[in-house]
Design a protein that fits this description.
It is a single chain. By secondary structure, the protein is α+β, with helices and mostly antiparallel strands. The chain has one domain: Elongation Factor Tu (Ef-tu), domain 3 (Beta Barrel), CATH 2.40.30.30. The protein contains five helices and six strands, in the order βαβαββββααα. It has a six-stranded antiparallel β-sheet. A hairpin with a 5-residue loop joins strand 3 (65-73) and strand 4. The protein starts with 25 loop residues before the first strand and ends in a 24-residue tail after the last helix. It binds flavin mononucleotide. The site of flavin mononucleotide has 24 residues, from helix 1, strand 4, strand 5 and helix 3. Keywords: ATP-binding, Flavoprotein, FMN, Kinase, Metal-binding, Nucleotide-binding, Transferase, Zinc. InterPro entries: Riboflavin_kinase (IPR023468), Riboflavin_kinase_bac/euk (IPR015865), Riboflavin_kinase_dom_sf (IPR023465). One of its GO terms (cellular component) is mitochondrion. It catalyses: riboflavin + ATP = FMN + ADP + H(+).
């Protein structure tokens, strides 16, 4: 594996509750690609999309739904994140996506940057909503839940994982448009 081995950090199953999935915590990274562009504009909640290769390599037990965890861009700081995996029923997308909202205010957008994430826990299934407002309210509740859960000592440990300090600064070596090698999957898959 070009980015190092599997994490040595273990997280107690009990903290995941009923939705325990054996593949969590799940580490992956990939270049940020363009989504449908609604995240910032319509929702006021910017999301970073992973390339198809990352979406297609998800282990089978990581189903669609909303997750929380940690994320960093390039070699930057590690922040809390929430992620939506699936077809966005509100928008009736036909393509499965993995969209990460990093809980931090960035000055610029990050297309082409390397996004590293560890998915730590599951929040809820994806669902449709009667209005855009209701979707935004649900996402804000997800952010609040992630904020609280990630302060748990078992989760804070993952923030310090070597995975984040070993992020290759590929964009300074290879232009993002040709960096097919950047979409490598971690976790030994
Ligand atoms: C934490 C989080 C939860 C989400 N939950 C849902 C959901 O329950 N249903 C849904 O249709 N979309 C959900 N979304 C996806 C948004 O609809 C999506 O991020 C938005 O359409 C922007 O997509 P785009 O960047 O591809 O344009 C969620 C996104 C995030 C970050």
């Amino acid at each position: 594996l070009p980015f190092g081995g599997r994490s040595s950090v273990r997280v107690t199953r009990s903290v995941y509750g009923a939705a325990a999935m054996k593949s969590l915590p799940y580490f992956c990274r990939g270049e940020v690609v363009r989504g449908f562009g609604r995240g910032s504009k319509e929702l006021g909640i910017p999301t970073a999309n992973f390339p198809d290769s990352v979406v297609e390599n998800l282990p089978a037990d990581i189903g669609t739904g909303i997750y929380y965890g940690w994320a960093s861009l390039g070699n930057g700081d590690v922040h809390k994140m929430v992620m939506s995996i699936g077809w966005n029923p509100y928008y009736k997308n036909t393509k499965k996506s993995m969209e990460t909202h990093v809980i931090h205010t960035f000055k610029e957008d990050f297309y082409g940057e390397l996004l590293s994430v560890v998915m730590v826990g599951y929040i809820r299934p994806e669902r449709s909503f009667d209005s855009l407002d209701a979707l935004v309210t649900a996402i804000n509740d997800d952010i609040e839940e992630a904020n609280t859960k990630l302060d748990h000592p078992e989760h804070l440990k993952l923030k310090e994982d070597n995975f984040f300090t070993s992020a290759p600064s590929f964009s300074s070596v290879t232009p993002p448009t040709t960096s097919s090698g950047s979409q490598t999957i971690m976790n030994g898959h």
